């Protein structure tokens, strides 16, 4: 053994190699294992990265797309528009709020409110909103949400 520096079973090189391999094994041991997740298949409305029903959210945004948005919060399910003035009736303006209250696609998971003002004396004065207007907007959003769901299911 001419020129050999081996002094036995544990050389400096083998100790370092063993330590590196042990550290790598410990690091890899923490990565795997665990229990396999076996859950029920989720409904398409539940597979979402937002906090509310994705169909109602998309349908609400689509239905209000002609109005300028003031605030939209997908986690909380709130959409608030800015004042919208219809070019055909410049003497009134409307502001709409939509709240999505649930992750399920149901009629009671949607709440729409509207505020209306009319031009009066160089300013804007509050005016009543017909109940049918809010109901019609809710119906439009729900119909659009059902269509989106139907299309996503392939039918």
UniProtKB/TrEMBL annotation:
Signal peptide: 1-29
Domain of life: Bacteria
Pfam families listed in its UniProt record: DUF3576
Keywords for the protein's UniProt record, in alphabetical order: Signal
Name under which the protein is recorded: DUF3576 domain-containing protein
């Amino acid at each position: 053994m001419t020129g050999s520096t081996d002094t036995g079973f544990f050389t400096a090189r083998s100790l370092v190699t063993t330590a590196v391999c042990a550290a790598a094994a410990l690091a890899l041991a923490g990565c795997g294992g665990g229990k396999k997740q076996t859950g029920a298949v989720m409904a398409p409305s539940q597979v979402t990265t937002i906090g509310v029903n994705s169909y109602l959210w998309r349908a609400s945004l689509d239905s209000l797309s002609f109005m300028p948005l003031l605030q939209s919060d997908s986690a909380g399910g709130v959409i608030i528009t800015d004042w919208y003035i219809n070019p055909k009736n410049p003497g009134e303006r409307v502001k709409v709020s939509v709240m999505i209250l649930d992750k399920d696609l149901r009629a009671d998971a949607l709440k729409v409110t509207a505020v209306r003002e009319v031009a009066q004396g160089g300013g804007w004065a509050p005016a009543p909103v017909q109940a049918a207007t809010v109901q019609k907007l809710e119906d439009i959003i729900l119909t659009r949400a059902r269509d989106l769901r139907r299309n996503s299911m392939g039918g």
